[in-house]
């Protein structure tokens, strides 16, 4: 793992009970087992409470007779690391931080429940809600959308709701920033059905907001077929050289190449 991929979870270490442990947050370190157990217990407790509150809202929709006329979107803006690899919080491009829940109920479409294993992204949510509400479709954002008031980069998931096994996106994208010695860095990640590939180039801020691919601070490649926990970085493994080159080109080409055929 390149150094830039790691974060010392300063958010968690800033709390008094963790601060007094003098934890470094460095790679290959971990918090004491009893602390880990208590943190996980508290996290699961918060989830149970949230689940109960959500249930109250949904029940009230039923009570008011609005359930059959209400689109419900429930999602988390990121995943959460609970000690995997010794890491905590959300500030990475690892699978546990990037892979997050997204559930949508559209009356008359998802009533019987359905699950898809196709790759989706949060940018798909906006056009999905627009189509589900039967509003005018959103135009696709042009390469330069600085002067565009309203457009989309995602794809409505309504076709996927009707056919969860249909041909869909072959890759999805995410990113998370870093800084090092005053330099801006951006971690760009592409996820396919088998691989996660991440590059950490320099990054130019406004007005360009562009990666500086010639200045690279780290590369990661994880094979989720053999290593779903992302324990082995294959970026420099000669056996993965061909797939690394392919994923690098796909990452730098960007999301437009992977729009589904709908």
From TrEMBL:
**Which stretches are annotated as coiled coil?**
none
Please tell me whether the keyword Transcription regulation is annotated for this protein. Answer: no
* Alphabetic keyword roster: Hydrolase, Metal-binding
Transmembrane segment boundaries: none
Q: Which residues form the Sulfatase N-terminal domain?
A: 34-133
Which molecular function terms from Gene Ontology are attached?
iduronate-2-sulfatase activity; metal ion binding
Please give an example of a GO cellular component term from this record.
Answer: cytoplasm
Enumerate the cofactors the protein uses. Answer: Ca(2+)
Q: Which InterPro entries did the record assign?
A: Alkaline_phosphatase_core_sf (IPR017850), Sulfatase_N (IPR000917)
Query: What domain of life is recorded for the organism?
Result: Eukaryota
**What protein family is recorded?**
Belongs to the sulfatase family.
Q: Which PANTHER family match?
A: IDURONATE 2-SULFATASE
Could you tell me what this protein is called?
Sulfatase N-terminal domain-containing protein
